């Protein structure tokens, strides 16, 4: 999904735009039993130059632009069937988006589909006496979808809660450009329609606050402070720099376009790859760059899937020992554990100034847990301990008053340790048998 924001030049123009949108907006509908749409709120005053932009919330559980073409005995029957078909198509699209290893989409009953679907919007429609053509957006209930995927026996991807900021950098005759000129590469990203992407992307407007937040050289160098500023400005879950080297007259359709894509996360992780896009015989310059944005978006999705796949199946608990040399070790451990989607719950059984005993509830076996932890630079290794009892819950070595003493349990066979940044990449691969 690509979210684009176009700020009005004048408050008067903004008011006119809102008025026209209210008169000619899309038809909105809800599934039976869903709450009716709320009344339109009064227009907010225009934001100042330094205000934080209003970015649409990331919603990977929404499938947009589902095309339907149905003929029936009458217009009402055709419309009802089209809505049902759109929901089935949208579920298939969402399933393939979240289950990367899927070879087929499991069929669901009408009752199950009604439980999964939260609502729908009719974006465009053409109706005749017996035929219905339309474009429909379908929204799904995240909790119901997660429950269905977790019980299906397949690994699935936990979607990002926030969008990513994408910075399209164009290198024109050796000169990198981000904000100074409106290049064809930037226009391709601004004009790209919302698609079936897993990771929602936001293209900054290039206002003064954006220019002050990050410059082109800071973007190319991956300056942490500048990346944090532009990410915080758009409440983003990450920043992606997409650098394309283009001649001054536009892309050379006679050779592939190599796009250098670098993804930065707030925790300091960095992932870089090169996406090569070949020109098609029927391509024009603008079409070629638009198609290149689709390839780059797919590469971003694939990178996200690789690091955020959640194992399915029943939950299990693994007891781990966390050695501590300082309070910061514990703070950093909790922070990184919070970013591991495979861990559904963390229970602290005891903690002292030297170590913590933690029960990690997760899906999948310990090997999958180890790989997921390694992607967040947390090392999980065997300790060799087998029979020492686990102490009662305590805080900083003192028993917790009023807490019942649990029965003795085996000591943790696993030790969890904070690794240096990017050191877990080598451990994220499956271990040899």
TrEMBL record:
The entry's keywords: Signal
InterPro entries linked to this entry: DUF2066
Signal peptide: 1-29
Cross-referenced Pfam families: DUF2066 (PF09839)
Designated name of the protein: DUF2066 domain-containing protein
Annotated organism of origin: Azospirillum isscasi
Top-level taxonomy: Bacteria, Pseudomonadati, Pseudomonadota, Alphaproteobacteria, Rhodospirillales
